[in-house]
Amino acid sequence: MNTSSIVTPPFIDCAGLPADKISHGFFGCIGGVSEGVYRSLNVDLRRNDDPQAVRENRQRILQALDCSSICDDLLLVRQVHGTRCVVFSDSPVDGVEDEDIIDPLVDLLTIEADAMVTKIPHLALCMMTADCAPVLFYAKDEDGNPVAGAAHAGWRGAVNGVLEQTIKTMLACGVTRRQNIIAIPGPMIGFRSYEVSADFTAPFLAQDPENGILFAPSRNEGHFMFDFPRYIENVLRDSNVQIGYTQRKDTYGRKDDGNEYFSYRRSVHFQQPDCGRQASVIVIR
Fold first, then answer.
1. Is residue 196 part of a domain?
2. Residue 139: Cβ within 10 Å count
């Protein structure tokens, strides 16, 4: 692991969130110390990366967010492309099942979930992605206290309702109106990069025939290009929350060393043995 040249990892964020209350950012693959196919800001210890490098990458992310003095590490769960949303809380929450109330001191990688919500300060909620959509959430409860959330939405989780489940959980945690929630989609695979088979369209058309507008014929017969970012925005808009916008970034990107983001699809297309996972983080200060 080479730490001779310290780099502050770049990230994108959403203007308008109160910086004194919330730190947040969508990171890519730049600014870390991992090597090979994990170059360089991989945050996933479950890959075959050097664990010491991954831990250094996580600390760099906290430093970039000015949270290294208040957070020991990124808070992660085992993402399974489902719809479960857990709450980090030290007390019961009306409307949330007991098994979904989690003590943040437990071994979180034993917790299977694809969304997290908390009102506890100094917890760095983190979702890992490599083409799927990360969505960060912010609102205030009835007493004006911050409520933060983070969700991992692959196509399966998105169509099955992981974003709606996150919103419902934030309401259970004291947010009084859906319209008070700001949902911020981060970098994900873009329309020009996401070719799918004809069978792929079925659950989206079953959900709403108007979703057909999200699919355009590709150059390969029987295949379509899928506008996943637009689908994510439509889901959030239909959920009656505010959408906080960032720079729209396609994680697939280019095939050369100039890529800004890890992409599982790109790694498959170019026959790489693996790829890293980037972090999307939100912290109540």
1. no
2. 26
